Amino acid sequence: MKNFAYVKAGSLAEAIKAMSTRGAWLHAGGTDLLGCARDEILAVEKVVSISRLKQLKGISPQPDGSLKIGALTPLADIAASVSINAKYAALAQAAAAVGTPQIREQGTVGGNLCQRPRCWYFRSDIQCLKKGGASCYAVMGENQYHAIFGGGPCFFVHPSDVAVALTALQAQLTVSGTAGNKSVRIDSFFISPKKAVLKENVLLPNEIVTEIRIPPAGASTRSSFRKIAARGSWDFALASVAVALQLGGDGVQTARIVLGGVGPYPWRADAAEKALVGKKLDSAAAAAAGEAAVAGAMALRDNAYKMDMVKGIVEESLAAFI
Ligand SMILES: Cc1cc2nc3c(=O)[nH]c(=O)nc-3n(C[C@H](O)[C@H](O)[C@H](O)COP(=O)(O)OP(=O)(O)OC[C@H]3O[C@@H](n4cnc5c(N)ncnc54)[C@H](O)[C@@H]3O)c2cc1C
Fold first, then answer.
1. Using a 6 Å cutoff on CB, does residue 303 contact ligand 1?
2. Does residue 289 have its Cβ closer than 6 Å to ligand 1?
3. Ligand 1: distance of its center to the CA of 103 in Å?
4. How far is 234 from 254, CA to CA, in rounded Å?
5. How many CA atoms lie within 13 A of 250 on its CB side?
6. How far is it, in rounded angstroms, from Cα 84 to Cα 112?
7. CA within 20 to 30 Å of 277's CA: 115, 124, 223, 238, which one?
């Protein structure tokens, strides 16, 4: 591992300032960053730890019914939170689905959203497109774990489980930088490789996600997260889905169905949402939404199996609410 400078910031302003030099990387729990540094996937010249910034840690219900979660909050706290389990089940279930107990204790929610892709070409010493090279080797290569939605020119899938749930729950992220704070809708936070292949989100080099806000959950809101992985423990999603529904009257009033493990960012299954809204939630509607969830998918040579997974978990998730 190459040597790097280390800064343990005593304030947010100090962290932002320290992040303003080339090769500086933010360190939250370090479960992803330090592996990337060790394997020399990133050119790490300086590591800026924010672990001392206690104001960035915690889960606080707000007077208007929304929820504020500090970016440094460990995933284990989110998975165990009584209020998150009661009002935002999808988020608690997604946090509980991440890695191992150790990863969930050490890993933070901000780090989970900003972690780098797990594509095996990106994580190897190959100079792929995402590292500034000329080609995405997944196109002709080993592509069983790659994108079926939104791929090209690079076909990685976003690895975050929590991002999928937070997208279904319409979270807003507070981002702090030299220009102060701004609020970014999670739908606008992640970016397509078609727009910028070297990064996965809109953050500028010295910007930090400081908190996450989730709008109030209505009494009739139901949500869930489901994930399929090759192994039962510490594995990334082959496919996942977060569903957030408002149920009322005789059926589904609003629906957000978001897929993970299948695209470069949490993927809204628009056609599935449309298939559901205004309908009575029964097994036929759940199956129809499952079928609709793969509209627009384009499989590579070895990942068509993800289509059946998507159909199955969307149908299964909806059927669980009947
Ligand atoms: C064995 C193993 C299994 C895993 N399994 C899963 C899984 O199943 N599902 C899943 O979703 N993830 C998984 N992960 C990935 C990930 O490490 C964790 O999810 C964790 O939440 C990352 O948080 P961290 O605080 O350790 O991030 P760090 O490693 O500190 O940071 C990760 C990246 O985000 C940046 N960053 C961190 N915090 C912020 C912030 N507040 N603002 C801006 N940038 C920031 C860092 O600079 C770095 O680039 C796994 C990791 C390992 C090692």
1. no
2. no
3. 9
4. 33
5. 3
6. 17
7. 238
CB contact at 8 A, 146 and 300: yes
Ligand 1 pocket residue status of 26, Cβ below 6 Å:
yes
The Å distance, Cα 116 to ligand 1 centre, comes to: 8
Nearest protein Cα to ligand 1, atom 14: 99
pLDDT digits (tens, 9 = 90+) for 273-319: 999 999 999 999 999 999 999 999 999 999 999 999 999 999 999 99
Q: Are strands 172-177 and 221-228 parallel, antiparallel or unpaired?
A: unpaired
DSSP structure string for 139-185:
TTS--TTS-SSS--S-------HHHHHHHHTT-EEEEEETTEEEEEE
Residue 261 identity: G
Nearest ligand 1 atom, CA 210 = 41
167 near 242, Cβ under 8 Å?
yes
pLDDT in tens, 113-143: 999 999 999 999 999 999 999 999 999 999 9
228 CA to centre of ligand 1 in angstroms: 19
Q: Find the 32 Cα to ligand 1 centroid distance in Å.
A: 5
Return phi, psi of residue 228, to 5°. Answer: -115, 125
Q: Whose CA is closest to atom 3 on ligand 1?
A: 99
Q: Is the pLDDT of residue 249 over 90?
A: no
Q: Which residues contact 249 (CB under 8 A, 6 or more apart)?
A: none
Residue 199 CA, ligand 1 centroid: distance in Å = 15
pTM of the predicted protein model: 0.98
